[in-house]
Structures are given as structure tokens and as C-alpha cells.
Give the backbone structure.
Amino acid sequence: MDWMLLLLIAASHLASAFLAATIAQQKARNSRMWFCAGLLFGLLGLIAAAGLPDRHQIVYLRHLAEAQGYRNKRVSGKK
């Protein structure tokens, strides 16, 4: 019984890892890192990957803001 439980937990973590990597890749994130997070944390890693904002959407919204004349006053790297 203990081996079956361990096998079930390992299979669920492996499935979560593959799903987290797939979701991260679709959201233009680092799929290897999210695979490791899904493998290590299981369902929590999968939920975290699903909660990530889409990087394509962030770039698109930044482009729209700049097209409307918005300029970021806080530029990273400059004081």
C-alpha cells in the first residue's frame, strides 16, 4: 500500500510538471523552470503557472500605452 501511494504521488507530480511546463510555454515563460516547479510542488506549481500573466499580453498593453503617448518616468537602471 505504501508503494502504491508513493507511486500515485510521483505520477501526480510528474503530470503537474508537464502541465505547468505546457502552460508556461503558452504564456511565453520559462517552461523548464515551471517544469521543475511543478515537479517539486505538484499541484501548487501547476496553479502558480496557471495564474501567471501572459507575457504577450503585457507587451501588447505596453505597446498600446506607448502609442497613446504614455512614457514611463521610472526607467530601471538610471538614477
About this structure: The chain has a mean pLDDT of 90. The longest helix spans residues 2-26.
